[in-house]
Design a protein that fits this description.
Length: about 325
């Protein structure tokens, strides 16, 4: 990469989403005891507001969009790596994005890996880009593209890259499993060199099922690999609807480093705001708070509403922020 300009950092604060209160120092005096009781009753939490740019992935990411995100009260973004949305292969665009984020006091919390080989403008779809390709040439092409996305961390630092393992139609073919292991073995090491952790996301495909991911990590012993728990996808898993999220969460619990939050009615991947579907959010938030370490970055990943009666994107961004207001109320009520 061109080293003429220094790397640009959007912010320096580490990403976080939910923090449990720190224990108070023990004391025999009444005031600390009273304060401890008060904090325990109030159940104070710190929720970092992170929005995925997936909300307008079909559009070019502009300074105006980022200004709207900041204006709605978000503090960080997850950048969806689609060339028509944000050209991560253009060093000038990457450095410019760092400055735009800094201008809007937004942090780059994470990067969603590219999912398509279609590099044209205004396109999310196209031929899938997959690390499970059995054909070696196509698998190497996929890895090279993912490495290009990872490498922007040299100029635009971020801590996690969210990655799908296989598409929603992919079956659990042993050859695809071997291909995924070969790909991830290289990608995890490549990402580590620039301070990035690869987080594989649970999806609705066979190779993205939480139980499959758990077994995959246990058998391959890819110690540097982590999980991104997608609660909306978990709500579409097999089994009784009221048990799906908890069952999926427990299968992934040990390796969860972050999460995507969105809602649905248990029938299709609608990417609705929380509480617009049938997920039990208070129960789900208790699961997140049960993780060790005290912090779990939660990224709001919504789908753009389209059609003649759809609200404009400014209104959709405002509605996204309001959905987090309600989640904060849920957190304070725990």
């Amino acid at each position: 990469m061109n080293a003429a300009a220094p790397p640009t950092r959007a912010t320096t604060a580490p990403p976080s989403a939910i923090s449990r209160e720190a224990p108070l120092a023990s004391s025999e005096t009444p005031f600390p005891k009273l304060l401890g009781w008060f904090l325990g009753r109030a159940k104070l939490v710190d929720m970092q507001r992170i929005l995925s740019t997936y909300l307008f992935v079909s559009k070019k990411l502009t300074p105006e969009f980022l200004a709207l995100i900041h204006g709605a009260g978000f503090q960080a973004i997850e950048l969806f790596a689609s060339r028509g949305h944000f050209d991560y292969t253009n060093t000038q665009d990457v450095r410019g994005m760092g400055q735009i984020l800094a201008d809007n006091r937004l942090q780059l919390a994470s990067l969603h890996a590219p999912t398509s080989r279609d590099f044209g403008p205004n396109r999310e779809g196209g031929t899938p880009l997959s690390i499970t390709e059995v054909e070696r040439v196509r698998r190497i092409e996929a890895m090279d593209e993912l490495k290009r996305a990872i490498d922007i961390a040299e100029n635009l630092p971020f801590s996690r890259m969210i990655l799908h393992m296989g598409g929603h139609r992919d079956t659990a073919d042993p050859r695809k499993r071997d291909a995924a292991f070969s790909s991830l073995e290289h990608l995890v090491l490549h990402a580590k060199h620039v301070g990035v952790t690869i987080c594989v996301e649970n999806t609705t495909g066979e190779m993205g099922q939480p139980a499959y991911l758990h077994t995959f990590v246990e058998e391959t012993r890819l110690t540097g690999l982590r999980f991104n728990f997608d609660i909306g996808h978990a709500h579409l898993a097999d089994g009784p609807q009221e048990e799906r999220v908890a069952t999926s969460f427990e299968a992934m619990r040990e390796h969860i480093a972050s999460a995507h939050i969105h809602d649905n009615l248990g029938d299709k991947d609608a990417h609705l705001p929380p509480h617009d579907g049938s997920i039990d959010w208070p129960a789900a938030l208790k699961l997140f708070r049960s993780l060790p370490g005290g912090e779990t970055p939660l990224t709001l990943e919504l789908k753009e509403k389209t059609g003649p009666d759809a609200p404009g994107l400014p209104d959709q961004i405002t509605a996204a922020a309001k959905s987090l207001d309600r989640l904060e109320e849920d957190l304070h009520a725990l």
